[in-house]
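Annual report, structural modelling task.

Input specification for the 8-OXO-guanosine-5'-triphosphate complex:
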Amino acid sequence: MTKIPTWIPVVALALFDADGRILMQQRIAGKHHQGCWEFPGGKVEIGEIPRLALVREISEELAIDIDPTLLDPCGFAEETGKRDIVLFLYTSRQHCGEPRGLDGQEWGWFTPSEAYSLAMAPMDRVLLGQIDGARR
Ligand SMILES: Nc1nc2c([nH]c(=O)n2[C@@H]2O[C@H](COP(=O)(O)OP(=O)(O)OP(=O)(O)O)[C@@H](O)[C@H]2O)c(=O)[nH]1
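The model returned the following structure:
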């Protein structure tokens, strides 16, 4: 019997710059949690492995290239309800190119304490706490 997952896998990236700041972006109008800040990323497509989905999403959203071999799994968050979603977070300190918000979204580099003061999507806030935990 074929087993089909009934939940949506989503991947996200905490990209660090040389000063230890994290890149975050704002969800655009018309999206669920519009105006909230999030880690860039998106849904894993059928047949994709998570880290390659993340390479694709980051290129589509921010016009930068990341090396899939330099992505470190960091944590995950989950939401159940009308749709069940699991959001997997990776970290990286490497990217090529200058970020641009290709969807017209605001984005920026934030220290972890600056990031805490942003209005964040709920799962992204959970993930921010996991990054902090991983650094202790
Ligand atoms: N990053 C993030 N995504 C969330 C949260 N809660 C939640 O339901 N989601 C959903 O998880 C999915 C994230 O994938 P995405 O970034 O590619 O979403 P999207 O809005 O571009 O796509 P969509 O409009 O097709 O849903 C979206 O469907 C989003 O609504 C959350 O707390 N953080």
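The mean pLDDT is 95.
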